[in-house]
């Protein structure tokens, strides 16, 4: 069967003949892949910045934002059934007994760093025709989400951030649920826009702050958020317009912007990092001001990566809500669907639009 794979040592990416997988464990199921979303991680792997093939192999089948249909079941499978639409989790636990997160089924918090991730590190991904995996990593989505289900995995980034946010703000006597809560999203890519939708759904007065691009402002406003363009509104002006900022959700991977924005965070505020910047030159940071604010304003800063089942379940629930409230807006996040043969331009050229998807089968 066909698959898109990178050959890190050869600095090459191509469509390859990949072995059709078979069920070898009674709790496994076979999935016919329908769609695979393309993100910055895929493009970085395709430029050979990282990406690790399975042990003993010279290639890595990429793709981790998946949507598939179950076509075959192992004898002990009970969580999914044939015909179910599923989104499969990305990370797999490390083998070390001392890793409490992995032993608890929360490999998204793995403490050893020896995990594998499908399509990224040590395990083949989903940009292929058929996949076999254990049912415990599969999340069933309603048939009504067929057209946008490929957005579930990128939405889990925001959902994990939100789950942690509510736990953290539970430290406040009022649980962080005071009326008029304000959030700022840095970045208007897929992770930023999905995060903004999640924050609006959670009741935050939400502002998206980003570099301008065509049609972004009307899209943001269509789901009840406000858009401010970085080219015309300085960070200090953004903070004045927003007022007390309770949450900043960073989705740019731009460290300079992030640390400058951190200065605008309000009292008792939370700053969430989701981006991973490339290795560039050092930047100057006013550490004295940041430290003073963190202490004197009771602020919290945390980073979040990957997601557990709770975040996948929240993403499916919220994507259903997005579709009900803003069907045109959420559908427009998917810029285009392309055949596998279009992989070269999609993975190596400058990205166009919001979210591009490779259609594996109908």
Strand and helix map with partners:
Blueprint: E1 2-7, E2 12-17, E3 28-37, H1 40-46, E4 60-61, E5 65-73, E6 85-88, E7 91-92, H2 100-103, E8 116-118, E9 122-123, E10 130-134, E11 138-141, H3 152-169, E12 182-186, H4 190-201, E13 205-210, H5 216-222, E14 226-229, H6 235-242, E15 247-250, H7 255-262, E16 270-273, H8 287-296, E17 300-303, H9 309-325, H10 327-332, E18 334-339, H11 343-348, E19 355-359
Parallel strand pairs: 8-9, 12-13, 12-15, 13-14, 15-16, 16-17, 18-19
Antiparallel strand pairs: 1-2, 1-4, 3-5, 3-10, 3-19, 5-6, 6-11, 7-8
Description:
The protein has 11 helices and 19 strands. It is α/β, with parallel strands linked by helices and 362 residues long. Strands 3, 5, 6, 10, 11, 18 and 19 form a 7-stranded mixed beta sheet that branches. Strands 14-13-12-15-16-17 form a 6-stranded parallel beta sheet, with helices on both faces. Helix 3 crosses helix 4 (190-201). The longest helix is centred in the middle third of the chain and has 18 residues, at 152-169. It is globular and about 55 Å long.
């Amino acid at each position: 069967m066909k698959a898109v794979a990178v050959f890190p040592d050869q600095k090459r990416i191509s469509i390859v003949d990949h072995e059709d997988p078979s069920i070898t464990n009674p709790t496994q199921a076979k999935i016919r892949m329908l769609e695979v979303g393309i993100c910055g991680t895929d493009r970085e792997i395709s430029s050979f910045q990282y990406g690790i093939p399975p042990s003993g192999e010279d290639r890595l089948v990429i793709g981790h934002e998946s949507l598939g249909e179950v076509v075959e079941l192992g004898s002990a499978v009970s969580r999914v059934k044939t015909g179910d639409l599923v989104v499969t989790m990305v990370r797999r636990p490390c083998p070390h007994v001392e890793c409490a997160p992995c032993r608890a089924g929360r490999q998204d918090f793995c403490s050893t760093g020896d995990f594998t991730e499908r399509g990224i590190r040590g395990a083949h991904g989903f940009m292929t025709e058929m996949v076999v995996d254990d049912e415990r990593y599969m999340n069933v989505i309603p048939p009504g989400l067929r057209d946008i289900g490929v957005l579930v995995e990128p939405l889990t980034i925001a959902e994990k951030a939100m789950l942690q946010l509510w736990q953290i703000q539970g430290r406040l006597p009022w649980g962080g649920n005071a009326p008029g809560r304000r959030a700022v999203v840095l970045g208007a890519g897929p992770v930023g826009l999905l995060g903004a939708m999640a924050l609006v759904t959670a009741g935050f007065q939400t502002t998206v702050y980003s570099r301008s691009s065509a049609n972004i402002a009307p899209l943001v406003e269509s789901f009840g958020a406000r858009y401010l363009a970085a080219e015309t509104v300085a960070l200090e002006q953004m903070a004045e317009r927003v007022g007390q900022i309770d949450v900043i959700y960073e989705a740019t991977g731009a460290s300079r912007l992030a640390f400058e924005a951190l200065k605008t965070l309000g009292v008792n505020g939370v700053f969430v990092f989701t981006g991973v910047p490339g290795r560039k030159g050092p930047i100057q940071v006013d550490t004295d001001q940041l430290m003073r604010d963190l202490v004197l304003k009771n602020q919290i800063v945390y980073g979040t990566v990957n997601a557990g089942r709770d975040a996948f379940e929240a993403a499916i629930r919220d994507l259903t809500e997005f579709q009900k409230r803003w069907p045109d807006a959420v559908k427009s996040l998917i810029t285009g669907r392309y055949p596998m043969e279009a992989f070269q331009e999609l993975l190596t050229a400058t990205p166009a639009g919001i979210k591009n998807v490779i259609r594996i089968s109908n």
